[in-house]
Amino acid sequence: MKRFNILILLLSISLLTILTESCKKDESCPTINCNTGEVNEETCSCDCPDGFSGLNCETEDLCITQNINCQNGGLCIDGTCNCLPGFFGVNCEQLDMSQIQALLDGGITPKTLYDAGVNLEQLYGKMYKDGILFYLNTDDGTGMVAAPEDQSTGAEWGCYEINVPFLNNVPWNEGTPNGEGAEIGDGAINTDRILMENCMSSNGTDIAAKLCRDIGEEWFLPSIKELVLMNTNLYENGHGGFSAVFYWSSTELVYNDAGKFKAWVSDFNEEGFQHMIGRKINAHVRAARAF
């Protein structure tokens, strides 16, 4: 009997402890309305789902809960996309084509505009990075611009009795020069190598490559394929103020072992047809730079 009484006493103590802890919990963590959230009984606070905040999860961020996706630099405020100038639409997905130049002037890149639906024909001829846009690599966003005007209307290529060291000789290939020194991206290094020789023209004046570099260290005499792009994407569409004449490229040609030193030009009067001519001949010069 005594043992039974002890057991009853222990059970009573356990029940009293449970009831006491429950009362304490109720007293320290009163009923909370967490709306869309859940009560955290350890901290007596609300755990809110994504897009909700506040003591009772009462504040909703519509930009998150409605999964708003503002494009082209737009900013979501209260569930609505505030678009940059030139863009419109629910998600700023549409572009005002009349604002292309203004967007470029404002720092929007050609690649961003291309991805937003602007085609290359609408981009070429626009001013960008102090020049006239004539090439865009749509994969990585790099490209080139031409100087706004000719650097000369009659300059020699120079180095007229020199096979320029480290400058690849690009031979005639059925009218289309190909290979190192002729390709897109070769103009800058071609120019560097030409200028390493400190060549002058036959009458002591500046040569084509130097005239290009003189307007800034990033400017260069374009390779023959870069020059053809200027012809195709600018001149043939009335951009850039080019003349229908020969323009020098930085692509070299040593005609044979006897030393007929020539260089490549693009004839803007014949849809960019390429010629190899003597380096003392006067031709127009138009610089390029990459971005």
What does this entry look like structurally?
The structure is a single chain. By secondary structure, this protein is α+β, with helices and mostly antiparallel strands. It folds into three domains: 31-60, Laminin (Ribbon); 67-126, Laminin (Ribbon), CATH 2.10.25; 146-290, Mannose-Binding Protein A, Chain A (Roll), CATH 3.10.100. Helices cover 25% and strands 22% of the residues. The protein has helices spanning 2-28, 62-65, 100-105, 110-115, 120-123, 187-195, 208-213, 224-233; strands at residues 38-40, 45-47, 52-53, 59-60, 75-77, 80-82, 87-88, 94-95, 127-128, 131-136, 143-146, 152-155, 246-254, 261-267, 273-278, 283-285, 288-290. The strands form seven sheets. It has a four-stranded antiparallel beta sheet. Strands 13-14-15 form a three-stranded antiparallel beta sheet. The protein has a two-stranded antiparallel sheet with strand order 1-2. The chain starts with a helix and ends with a strand.
**How much helix, percentage-wise, in residues?**
10-25%
Q: Label the CATH architecture of the largest domain.
A: Roll
Oligomeric state of shown chains: single chain
Classified by CATH, the class of the largest domain is Alpha Beta
Radius of gyration: 36 Å
Tally of individual domains = 3
- Strand percentage lies at 15-25%
Residue-averaged pLDDT = 88
Number of strand segments: 17
Distance between the termini: 98 Å
Secondary structure class reads alpha+beta
CATH topology of the largest domain: Mannose-Binding Protein A, Chain A
Overall shape: elongated
Order of secondary-structure elements:
HEEEEHEEEEHHHEEEEHHHEEEEE
| Strand arrangement in the largest pleated sheet | 9-10-11-17
Give the helix tally: 8
Low-pLDDT ranges: 15-26
Biggest β-sheet strands, sense, barrel = 4 strands, antiparallel
